[in-house]
Amino acid sequence: MSWDWFESIGKPPFVAAPMVDASELAWRLLCRRHGAKLCYTPMFHSNVFTKDPKYRKDSMQTCAEDRPLIVQFCGNNPEVMAAAAKMVEGQCDAIDINLGCPQSIAKRGKYGSFLQDEWKLLQDIVKAMSEAVSIPITCKVRIFEDIEKSVRYALMLQEAGCKLLTVHGRTREQKGPLTGIASWKHIKAVREAVSVPMFANGNIQCLEDVYRCIDYTKVDGVMSAEGILTNPALFEGINPVSWDMALEYLDLVEQFPCPTSYMRGHLFKMFHKIFTFEENNEARQLLATGQNIHDFRKVCVIIKDKYKDYHEGNLNFDDCENITRQGYNLILPPWICQPYVRMSPEAHTQKMESLSKVQVENNNKRDYEDTDGNCISRKKMKKLRKIMRRPVKDDQQNGRNGEICVNATCPNPLGGKCVYQLCKKCCRNKCFEEDLDCTGHRILVHTRREMAKKYAHQNNEMEHIQCNNESEN
Questions:
Q1: Rounded Cα–Cα distance for residues 183 and 191 (Å)
Q2: Under 8 Å between Cβ of 225 and 36
Q3: Which residue numbers are catalytic?
Q4: CA pair distance 342, 272, nearest whole angstrom
Q5: What DSSP element (H or E) covers 142?
Q6: Where does the DUS-like FMN-binding domain lie (predicted)?
Q7: Are 219 and 191 in contact (CB under 8 A)?
Q8: pLDDT in tens, 283-301
Q9: Quick one: how many helices (H) and strands (E) in the chain?
Q10: What is the number of alpha carbons within 13 Å of residue 442 lying toward its C-beta?
Q11: In the 8-state DSSP scheme, what is residue 374?
């Protein structure tokens, strides 16, 4: 069944990974336009998914173009995981179990890679989900340091009912600044042992890496996460202009809206090299504080206007005198989508040791100053930075639109959706005095009074009928 199903979805070699707050529908469609043959949803928490209709509605967004699609869940309860799988069975081609998340939140919630030692529980989860739905159950895992244990782990999941395996070639401890290099040697060993279709994940920065990985490990497809965040056209084998990709993504967001935090995150990734230059601090600040899609489009236009002539060859970037050249040693120009190269774990450790040494020499204290040069606490500094990131705009001083309540004696800001252009207090008074409703403030005085009258009339009729019956008797 595993291979028949895999062939039915086209044996996809290029896979866009599940990423929390980054694999929303608009992003998946962008990746599909540029080479991705299979996409995963972000990780959904199975317990919340089954209990919260709003979370379920907001999370599970898809469309006809969004296939083949695999929905990913995390959790540690077989019954709840099975129930969640049942809810999305008709909207996807398979359901994945997240056994790879290494973050501290996964440790607290006991899911992701922190279940990789609970083999009996994992067997129960895979079995329960497989029996609950008619589509395949897949698993995304991380490796153990020991190759042999990694192989036994994969075989256990396969025997439990897993129909496709994605192996991330890093251990649970390899994350953040200690990410390091993924082990294709582990992935190759697992591929040789299992008989179900398998994807590899790790060390993918360009299309050439994809083919090298397939050639070495013999997997059936390659999944990319960080690589496609900085270059959504990675699987297309090109390095496009960053503002073109960003604007195309924002066009899709217009059709399939998503939270502003998702948009901001994607644009920061695509413009990550541009923002290393001090001359682009204004655009970076606008992106950091932008509150809607129009602000984000403005960021794209600013960057495009600044670098378009260099990209088209009308100006020579190397001859530009007003651009800081420090640190510019890229193979590609900074406005081109390109890989993000992490600092090695060894370099990070050395850096942290150097910082610790400096702190010891300074009595283990770091001085913080406000804009006037006064010494302040670290807590106060964090608060000031937060305010600077999200400054209050002029039109926000008196409410959402800078307007106040139409009641001449009231200084309060008006409610953004108030039918009568009043603040909530004045609106409530008006509705009570004039027997009105305000849907914007959800004040339903008239409606509730009418319901009370209706029930009172019904009660009177019931009492009248009851009295007649008693008198007849």
A1: 13
A2: no
A3: 101
A4: 12
A5: strand 137-142
A6: 16-256
A7: yes
A8: 999 999 999 999 999 999 9
A9: 19, 12
A10: 0
A11: -
Burial of 322-332, coded b for 16+ CB within 10 Å and e otherwise, reads ebeeeeeeeee
pLDDT at 463 over 90: no
Using alpha carbons, select from 125, 97, 127 the residue that is nearest to residue 112: 97
Tokens of 246: 């960003």
What pTM was estimated for this model as a whole? 0.75
CATH topology of domain 2-238: TIM Barrel (3.20.20)
- Whole-angstrom CA distances from 191 to 68, 209, 217, 225, 288 are 23, 18, 7, 20, 43
Paired sense of beta strands 375-376 and 368-369, if any = antiparallel
Binned at pLDDT 50, 70 and 90, residue 391 comes out as low
DSSP string, 162-217: -SEEEEESS-TT--GGG-----HHHHHHHHHH--S-EEEESS--SHHHHHHHHHHH
For the chain, what are the domain ranges? Answer: 2-238, 239-342, 345-389, 399-473
Work out the angle between the directed axes of helices 260-270 and 242-255 (0-180°, nearest 10). Answer: 160
Structure tokens at 225: 């996460």
